[in-house]
User: Fold this.
Amino acid sequence: MEKFKKLFPNKEGFIVFALYIILFVFQGVFITASKTENGIYDYNTTLVVFLSELLKLFISAALYTYKRGDKPNIFKAISNNYNLLLQYFIPSLLYCFYNNLAFINLSHYDPTSYYILLQFRVVLTAFIFQFLFKKKLAFIQWISLGILTLGCMLKNFDAATITSKGDADSIWSQIFNIYFVSINFQNFCSCLAGTYNEYLLKTKGSNVDIFLQNVFMYLDSVICNFFILMCKGEVLTMFKDFQSLGDVFVILITVNSAIVGIVTSFFLKNLNSILKTYASALELIITAVVCYILFHILITFYTIVSICLVVISVAMYFKNPVNNTNVESEQMRKDKKPLLDVVVQ
Assistant:
């Protein structure tokens, strides 16, 4: 029980942890289900990301306005904290790349392989975490990271073997292809954005309302994604592309992505980016089972071994967790409770 409290300082922390896992499993399933029989998307994926960021912005602004009490109105609050708004452009741009690359990589990998390969980010996350928060990981934590990385490498080899049908030369070309580069760049964006976002939430923005910080994040994200649409020359055809967004799975992707974004901010505020990485690892078991049931994606021997290694790594981490919860004043603790109640209720 004591170790559980060390992992999750309060009941809300555990609820956020569970929601994070469930919502991300749904996201991978929804994106896979939205593909055509040829494995492509018949809708504008960049526009979907743009709309989900816009929805996150509206939700965050509404929640801040609803719970602000005697705090300044949203426009004055943005003006008073414009430096923090500018600093949020860094994680916003990285998350912009991450969200758009998710569609590209899920068009090549099945959800189980995709989530396993995303776990390559753990070591880089650990390095960045130590650098920003000046907290060294214990030897056993590095061992758990190494086991997790081994599981990811094994699954990548498995996916390449299936695609190449056993041809030795083709296996290596499948491992180190453009999608391998793409998913590792996505890993880089994820770990740097998540850790830097946690850094802003717990240091420079520790006295700023979490919903206001979400407004900063998603306002910047909307701008970044609109810039991507401009670079792709899709701004003029944007309204025509709305016609293809009526599919039920596309709507679910947009809404689920918005909820994931809000939950993630509470995750980083109340827990930490290392635990977030391991929450992603726990998605693997659920995703493998769900994809087998819904899409008849086989669970191979290598998949089972990879998932076992990930579970072992997670168990090792749970016995030696990184405790980096935010230290706040008594007044801030009082302010946090109603904010969390909005999400929990």
